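Appendix C: a fully annotated inverse folding record. The material below is reproduced so that readers can follow the format used throughout the book. The structure is listed first as tokens, followed by the designed sequence.
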């Protein structure tokens, strides 16, 4: 199949490279000339394990190429995927669809032969209808069908998620388009994930419902963690105890500093807006958003309380800044709120993250960055683990203790076992555990 991928961001680049790896002929388009120039040189603009190799292999096999020139890339394609950003519209939380609609408009004039226009961007219900209308208006003669095919991949595990998905959701109203989609995903049949064919609006809503449900699960266990601390229970054991019930499932029950990233925060807000617009409010999701926002600030409080109630003039070390491990993404990372609260309280914040420091620097000018975790700890009154990078799972604890001014560890990701750290003489504070 000949596939055009519009947008070479996270979803577009990973999907494009994976489709090429399936054996399809893929061209990735982006209006950002410097990004395309970098990709042509073999440089990957994001940090995603395995992506550089996947891209390089498929470029070498002539199955994957990059361009800024949209029209020739669209001509003759079997499917044109739209994978552009849908950020929160400033101020009101609605998804900003201007990039999606601009893509639709540009595609319209270039369509040649029957083409499936596939929306992979996360978009509110009804966006597919609007994309169809825009293309039809711009090019009344075009032979096309608009399909919704949301992406469920996680940053840091994107290639694995794309190639071994639990399911592929496809919102399609046209038999010819369904055939094309079946052909595109046929290489997955080895692992036989269900291809869930539904109506286009159902598919669009499924994506938001999935992200909102996962955000709810995390927020639920985070509140249970708070209660565990009060009553002397252990949240990890509670999570295991409930997660073994197949109706609940054990995943996304890891208590921590609150969810962040480029998806859950923006998608929960957009879903709330859709509910409000339709007069069908989503009160659970509204509460999840409020609880999660408050939690990030509460995590800074936890550090401040560990230091006796004030951090004024004190040096605090943070290990991990990205919203989760294996990514350099800082969008809505809990570290942002934590740093703001600590610095606001007068602390001197020192930090180390294996991948995200370039992204973090402009966002937290008050922080001193270090090239090594131990350098960040030197002379600090306490260290807080904010992101659970593997590199922090086996720190040289004797060295940590000797570098810290006071042996206080605030572990916001429950990386260590309380008994182990206490045995070594640390004051150890974690999440939802005694
Ligand atoms: C999320 C979804 O998991 C993907 O399925 C979806 O495709 C993607 O959004 C998207 O819509 O594009 P992602 O944002 O990459 O993926 O990251 P997650 O692994 O879901 O983590 C999100 C946040 O939740 C992180 O801050 C993470 O630390 C937190 N989290 C996750 C927890 O606090 N506890 C958990 O048990 C799991």
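Designed amino acids, in order:
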């Amino acid at each position: 199949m000949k596939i055009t991928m519009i947008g070479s961001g996270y979803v577009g680049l990973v999907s494009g490279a994976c489709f090429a790896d399936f054996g399809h002929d893929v061209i990735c388009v982006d209006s950002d000339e410097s990004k395309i120039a970098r990709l042509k040189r073999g440089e990957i603009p994001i940090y995603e394990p395995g992506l550089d190799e996947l891209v390089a292999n498929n470029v070498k096999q002539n199955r994957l190429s990059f361009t800024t020139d949209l029209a020739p890339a669209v001509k003759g394609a079997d499917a044109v995927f739209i994978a552009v950003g849908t950020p929160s519209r400033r101020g009101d939380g609605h998804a900003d669809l201007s990039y999606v609609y601009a893509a639709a408009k540009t595609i319209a004039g270039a369509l040649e032969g029957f083409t499936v226009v596939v929306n992979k961007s996360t978009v509110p219900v009804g966006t597919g209808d609007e994309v169809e209308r825009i293309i039809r208006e711009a090019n009344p003669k075009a032979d096309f069908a608009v399909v919704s095919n949301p992406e469920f991949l996680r940053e840091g595990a994107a290639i694995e998620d794309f190639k071994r998905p639990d399911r592929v959701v496809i919102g399609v109203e046209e038999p010819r388009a369904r055939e094309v989609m079946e052909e595109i995903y046929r290489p997955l049949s080895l692992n036989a994930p269900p291809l869930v064919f539904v109506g286009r609006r159902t598919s669009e809503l499924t994506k938001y419902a999935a992200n909102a449900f996962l955000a709810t699960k995390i927020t639920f266990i985070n509140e249970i963690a708070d209660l565990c601390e009060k009553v002397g229970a252990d949240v990890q054991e509670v999570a295991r105890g409930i997660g073994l019930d197949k109706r609940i499932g054990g995943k996304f029950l890891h208590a921590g500093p609150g969810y962040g990233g480029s998806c859950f925060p923006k998608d929960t807000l957009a879903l709330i807006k859709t509910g409000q617009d339709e007069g069908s409010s989503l009160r659970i999701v509204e509460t999840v958003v409020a609880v999660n926002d408050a939690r990030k600030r509460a995590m800074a409080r936890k550090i401040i309380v560990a230091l006796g109630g004030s951090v004024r003039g004190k040096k605090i070390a943070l290990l991990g800044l990205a919203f989760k491990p294996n990514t350099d993404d800082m969008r809505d990372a809990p570290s942002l709120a934590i740093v703001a609260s600590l610095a606001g309280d007068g602390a001197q914040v020192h930090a180390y993250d294996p991948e995200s420091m370039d992204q973090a620097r402009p966002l937290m000018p008050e922080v001193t960055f270090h090239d090594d975790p131990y350098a960040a700890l030197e002379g600090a009154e306490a260290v807080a683990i904010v992101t659970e990078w593997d590199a922090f799972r086996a720190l040289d604890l004797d060295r940590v203790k000797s570098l810290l001014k006071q042996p206080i560890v605030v572990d916001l990701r429950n990386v260590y076992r309380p008994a182990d750290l206490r045995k070594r003489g640390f004051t150890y504070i974690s999440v939802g555990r005694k």
